[in-house]
Design goal:
The structure is a single chain. Strands 4, 7, 8, 9 and 10 form a five-stranded mixed sheet that branches. Helix content is 19%, strand content 42%. With 185 residues, the chain is of the alpha+beta class. The protein is elongated.
Length: 185
């Protein structure tokens, strides 16, 4: 298979949260170019944050598109000039007031939806976290910090109390990492 050649590309709109771009490109089996709409978003970071006694730090917040409150791992977009590691440390500190003296462990880097979006989500595990301050939220954030035993998360997923996909996948990647690295943790 060959990559497609873009003929034209134009922005439909730009916002602080993302952009919509219309590309025209050629397919090998078509004479006429086709139009495709691409959502450009910044990369996101998220983390499973665990205390020394294996409590997981989650946040609950209202998500307008979902029209409900969601229980999630701390997460956010990477700011310009910021590494993924710097971004997750900042996001965890801002949303929860927690930090760690240990370096975040990279669990994976994943495309979000390559059919329509350009961004990735980068997932970390933060161990031995402790509360060092109060959360420092943006004006548009209303976040409640929730703490659960790490072992209780699967039940919360099964009971549909956690339904956000990035939280679910982060949990299973962290669980897998921890089971493979028991002697190190």
């Amino acid at each position: 298979m060959a990559r497609r050649s873009t003929i034209t590309s134009e922005y439909i709109y730009k916002t602080p949260f993302g952009h919509l771009r219309k590309d025209s490109f050629e397919l090998q089996n078509k004479e006429e170019p086709i139009d495709y709409y691409v959502h450009e978003y910044p990369d996101w970071v998220n983390a499973i944050v665990l205390t020394k006694d294996k409590q997981i730090i989650l946040v609950e917040q209202y998500r307008h598109p979902g029209n409900d409150f969601f229980l999630e791992v701390p997460a956010g977009k990477v700011e310009e000039g910021e590494s993924y590691e710097e971004g997750i440390i900042r996001e965890v500190q801002e949303e929860t007031g927690y930090t760690s003296l240990k370096k975040p462990i990279l669990l994976g880097e994943f495309t979000v939806n390559p059919a329509t979006q350009t961004n990735k989500v980068i997932t970390f595990l933060i161990l031995d976290a402790f509360q060092s301050s109060s959360p420092n939220l943006d004006d548009n954030e209303d976040v409640t910090v929730k703490i659960f035993p790490f072992d209780a998360i699967e039940e919360l997923i099964e009971d549909k109390k956690i339904t956000q996909l990035f939280t679910v996948s982060a949990y299973f990647f962290a669980k897998n990492y921890l089971s493979k690295n028991k002697e190190k943790n």
